[in-house]
Amino acid sequence: MDSSRLLRTSGTAIAAAALLISGCALGSGSPRATAAARAYDAGDGRSSAFPGFESFGAGAAGVPGAADTSPGSPYRRGDTPALTPLPTALPPALRRYYAQKLSWHPCGTSGFECATLKAPLDYDHPRDADDLKLAVSRRKATGADHAKRLGSLMVNPGGPGGSAVGYLQHYAGLGYPAAVRAHYDMVAMDPRGVAGSEPVTCLSDTEMDRYTEVDQTPDDAAETAELVDAYTKFADGCASRSGKLLGHVSTIEAARDMDVLRAALDDDKLTYVGASYGTFLGATYAGLFPSRVGRLVLDGALDPALGSEQVNRDQTAGFQTAFASFAEDCARRKDCPLGPSPDRAGDRLSELFEKADAAPLATGKSRKLTESLATTGVISAMYDEAAWGLLRNALKAAFQGDGGPLLKLSDAYYERDGHGSYQNLMYANAAVNCLDLPPAFRSPSEVREAIPAFRKASPVFGTALAWTALSCGYWPVPATGTPHRIPAAGAAPILVVGTTRDPATPYGWARSLASQLSSGRLLTYEGDGHTAYTRGSTCIDKAVNAYLLTSTPPPAGQRCSN
């Protein structure tokens, strides 16, 4: 799960955060539900087919633990520093990066092209020998009239650690609204440290298997020591395998890379759609380069003014909210494995976790389902109602002693394929999160003090998520970021989209970010699921499309329920 910012786009279970199924109010027969089932049945661990990756925080307005953005709340204190824009004049040492021309070649799915962008490892001290090679992909505008082309639309699915290139080629470049694809070249770049862009690596596949199985609700000193040892070995593995890159994968540096790409694409302004953690990346860009903001959509927003402990606690409350919705839906079905009472569903699930803790469940494979893997499997299905049917079946099997289906959900979350190989999602997630903010906790004693507040936020998941928030306490590189506001004074209108019952990025965060941005405009989706654009709401899609195509944001206070 994560630790530092449990889920900038989706996260859980001792690791870091992930990109898992994000969804809206879709039935089990929806195209996305079908895609979810295919990925699950294949056991390939891929989640890039889904519009939105998360691993940050969760909660909803009115939910205990959700961020309070009312006047005078600690999340909007006047002493919270504001992100300062960079000088508009380009430093001479960076001119060669901004002047580079991309060399495109066909790649991946038919119709897509790829290129490599060079960026300095350290923007303050650029050196040719240290240059990073960042993976870029695009699909040219499909419209026949080139004169109506609006430029490039950059997309990012979140994470941190989600492959933007994979998201573009498997979803956005093919599944975004036709009118948007007709007017824009669809573009994506894997952020530094992610997938095709100098990926951070930390453990072997076998070591990662062991890491995901470690007990994340330690009952005694020995189990606590085992968990701390797992976090320490993970951090040491990242340091030994990724070296100096670990100190240069911050969101601020990734946002600066985006500006280099904007220039290489010959765009005067940045047009961008970011989901979950992608909203933090987009808002950071706006804060650094307000005069270069074109049309920015920030969907499933993060609040940059929060510290790690609050982020993790908010997200814990969000998962509880999502589980309550799942339990209510399940209870209406005759075969609900959690029973007919939504109020008892949490106790029933806790019983299953305790059973797996005492004796891991058989899965039909050499690996068994531990409590930590079971917890990850359940949380992975909270991102999208399209996965609720899979979760019901997995829980039914688990109560009968078969942990195989729940293990599949966990593997999908961790991006573990059927051959036992992991993508670098969890490694990049930890590296970015631990660099962006100081750790939530630095010792087991601090975690124990915080557990009551986490359990108040979620009686079901609170203990596990409090312990996962300890991992950055052992990170080998000190954090370079701190909580901050992002006013982006002078920027063009920026559209922030928030979902009232988002399980990973609480609605209060969207409200807060929209209020911080000097030109922020909040668009609200009243419903469930993580993020809202292109996820089934005609109202949301119409408003976002109009903004992207005409620069006209929706009316202030607009709310959508369908």
UniProtKB/TrEMBL annotation:
<dbReference type="InterPro" id="IPR029058">
    <property type="entry name" value="AB_hydrolase_fold"/>
</dbReference>
<dbReference type="Pfam" id="PF08386">
    <property type="entry name" value="Abhydrolase_4"/>
</dbReference>
<feature type="region of interest" description="Disordered">
    <location>
        <begin position="62"/>
        <end position="86"/>
    </location>
</feature>
<keyword id="KW-0732">Signal</keyword>
<dbReference type="GO" id="GO:0016787">
    <property type="term" value="F:hydrolase activity"/>
</dbReference>
<feature type="signal peptide">
    <location>
        <begin position="1"/>
        <end position="27"/>
    </location>
</feature>
<feature type="domain" description="Peptidase S33 tripeptidyl aminopeptidase-like C-terminal">
    <location>
        <begin position="458"/>
        <end position="560"/>
    </location>
</feature>
<comment type="similarity">
    <text>Belongs to the peptidase S33 family.</text>
</comment>
<dbReference type="InterPro" id="IPR051601">
    <property type="entry name" value="Serine_prot/Carboxylest_S33"/>
</dbReference>
<dbReference type="InterPro" id="IPR013595">
    <property type="entry name" value="Pept_S33_TAP-like_C"/>
</dbReference>
<protein>
    <submittedName>
        <fullName>Proteinase</fullName>
    </submittedName>
</protein>
<keyword id="KW-0378">Hydrolase</keyword>
